[in-house]
Amino acid sequence: MMLRRAFLTAGLAGSVALGALLAPGLASAQEPITLRVHQFLGPNGTVPRDFIIPWAEKVTEESEGRLNVEVYSSMSLGGTPAALYDQVREGVVDIIWTVAGYTPGRFPISETFELPFMMADAESTSRAAWRFHEEYMQEETEDVHMLAVHVHGPGIFHMRAPAIERIEDVEGRTVRGPTRITTRLLETLGATAVGMPVPQVPEALSRNVIEGAVIPWEVTQVLRVPELVDTHTEFGGDRGLYSTFFFFAMNRDSYDALPEDLQEIIDANSGIEASAWAGRIQEAGDAPGREAAVERGNTIVTIEGEELARWREAAQQVRDDWAEEMEEEGVDGAALIEAAEDLIAEEESR
C-alpha cells in the first residue's frame, strides 16, 4: 500500500533526480535509482490508472527495488501538457506521457495515424503505430528514448443540444479538437475549431467557450463531460472518425546511464506489447464512459449508412491536403498513408 501511494504522489517531496543519483560519488549499490514520470491527467484517468502506474509498479518489482519509479500526475511538476516532450528531452523529468499533437507541426509523420477514418480498434492500431514509429519516425523522435506509442479508441462528438446527426449539424458549432489534424477536420466539416489539451475541456464547456468537444468515451468520466453536455455522436463502420497519437518516452541520458541489466528491464516493458497494452486499456475504458452518459439520459446518435459515406467523402479532403503538404516538405505523404493502412490491416487480421 505504501508503494502504491508513492506512485500516486503529486508533489515534489522525496523525489530524487536520476542525474543526481548517478553523479560520481553519490551512487551506491544500496541506493535505488529514482525515475520520475510526468503526465497531464489525474491519477484516476484510464491511462494513468491502468497503464502508467501498473507499468511503474512492474518495473520497480522486476528490478527488485533497484529502480524506484514515481508517477507525478496532473502536471504537478509544473509546466503545461505541451511542454512535456521538452521536459523529457531536456532531462527535467525522466519519463513522460503526452500527445504528440500538443505541439502542432512538430511531429508531422505521427499525424498519419490521426488522419480521419484511419484507425481500427485501438490495440491493433497501437501495434501498427509502434511498427510505423520504428520504420518511419526514428529521425522525428531521435532526441528521446521511446518506450511506447499508442492511440485511443474512436473519437466522437460530445455536444450540447442539438445533437449532431448530419454533416450540416456541425456547421457553425464551436468544437474543441486535440491536434492540428483534428482541428483541420472540424474546420473542413464547417465547425469553428478550438485546439486545446484535454484537461482544459471541462472549464471551456462550463464557461461556454466551446459547445462541445471531440474526445473518446474513456476520458469523459474523469472530465465530467456527460454532466456538461447532453448529446454524443458516434460513427459506425470499421474505422473511427479520428484518433490521437501518444508518446510514452524516456530521457536518453536517463536510459543510457542505467546499468545494462536495468536497461533490459526497461526494454522488456517497452515496444510493441507496451504500446498494445496502452491502446487496449484505453479503448476498454470507452464502455464505462458511454454507460455514464446512458445513465444520465443523454442522447446518443450513431452515424451510419449513406450519411457515414458523406462524412468519409468530406474527410477525404483532409487526407489529400495533408499528403500534398507533406509532399511540399519532401515527404511522400501518400506512401505514409498507404504504409499505415497496411500495418493496421495486418495487425487487425492477427
Structure description:
The protein is of the alpha/beta class and 350 residues long. It has a six-stranded mixed sheet. Helix 3 (46-62) packs antiparallel against helix 12 and helix 6 (180-188) crosses helix 14. The model is unreliable at 1-28 (pLDDT under 50). The chain is built from 15 helices and eleven strands. Strand 1, helix 3 (46-62) and strand 2 (67-72) form a beta-alpha-beta unit. Helix content is 43%, strand content 16%. The protein has helices at residues 2-7, 18-21, 46-62, 84-90, 122-136, 180-188, 201-206, 220-223, 225-228, 252-256, 260-268, 272-284, 286-295, 305-328, 333-349, and strands spanning 33-39, 67-72, 95-99, 145-151, 156-159, 174-177, 192-195, 212-215, 231-235, 245-250, 299-303. The longest helix has 24 residues, at 305-328. It has two domains: 2-102 and 137-151 and 245-284, D-Maltodextrin-Binding Protein, domain 2, CATH 3.40.190.170; 156-242 and 286-349, 3-Layer(aba) Sandwich (D-Maltodextrin-Binding Protein, domain 2), CATH 3.40.190.
CATH architecture of the largest domain: 3-Layer(aba) Sandwich
List the helices and strands in order: HHEHEHEHEEEHEHEHHEEHHHHEHH
How many structural domains does the protein architecture include?
2
CATH class of the largest domain, please? Alpha Beta
Identify the overall geometry: globular
Structural class based on helices, strands and sheet pairing: alpha/beta
Return the CATH topology of the largest domain. D-Maltodextrin-Binding Protein, domain 2
Sheet with the most strands: spatial strand order? 7-6-8-5-9-11
Number of strands: 11
